[in-house]
# Entry
Amino acid sequence: MQGELYTVGKYHAPGLQAFDMDKGIDERPTYVLFDGAEGSLVGDKALTAKTGDTIRIFFGNGGPNLDSNFHVIGTIFDRVYTEGGSIAQEHVQTTLVPSGGAAIVELTVEAPGTYAIVDHALFRAFNKGAVGQLKVTGPSRNDLFSAKQADVAYAGGPIEAPRLRTDGDPVLQMGESTFGRICAACHQPNGLGLPGQFPPLARSDYLAKQPKEVIIGHLLHGLQGPVTVLGMGYNGTMPPLAFLSDNEIAAVLTYVRASFGNSLSRITPDEVSRVRGQTASTP
# Structure
């Protein structure tokens, strides 16, 4: 189920947080979400399957306004029953689900991995929360494709792959994994970001100058408004990642602070817990 959430406002509806009627009328939701909450289908809450399984997803769009561009990155739908009907369309990449409508999709995944489930109007996914995960387990399929060699996507500057070795350090390994599935979509696998859109983490003067609790707060509560990183201005929206555990937030920040040319001290789960607790106790 996908739905829209309008926050910081005047009205309440059953099962929803407070929402702003003006934003609802203007059709500009603060969040676009799966199952009513950010992070409802990621991490420990992700959908799971085994390679070779036939996976059937019943997807409804609760609206109230936006159509949904339902897609699973890395595969296609074998069959799509639009509007939940009885006639299937085959080999579909993205299916449009209208507000108040529904679809049934079936897919078979041959290789293990974590597949992102998104509204393919991608700013809704990475900036407003409409992203989930399908975790597929099973034997590697190097007969289908070779193992990943390196993440060196071009990001408008010199290509630099992370040089940090995480072998034997479970914290850095967790941080690298969390960065790859959550942060790399915007900040890029090499940490260079996208000029003018997503700030770089590589050799970041912003990371170096900010107190730990400020950086931790960015992950817990998101960040909106102008910032300057390495002399370039950015004014986007980073969604809150409070669904991550204290261990995951500490690990990914430790990984970033030790990677991409950075050499900053570690962050501990206790430090994350203190910042989270201070927020929870604020009236």
User: Anything to note?
Assistant: Confidence is low (pLDDT under 50) at residues 8-17, 149-159. The chain has two domains: 2-137, 170-280. The first strand starts at residue 2 and ends at 5. The longest helix spans residues 170-187.
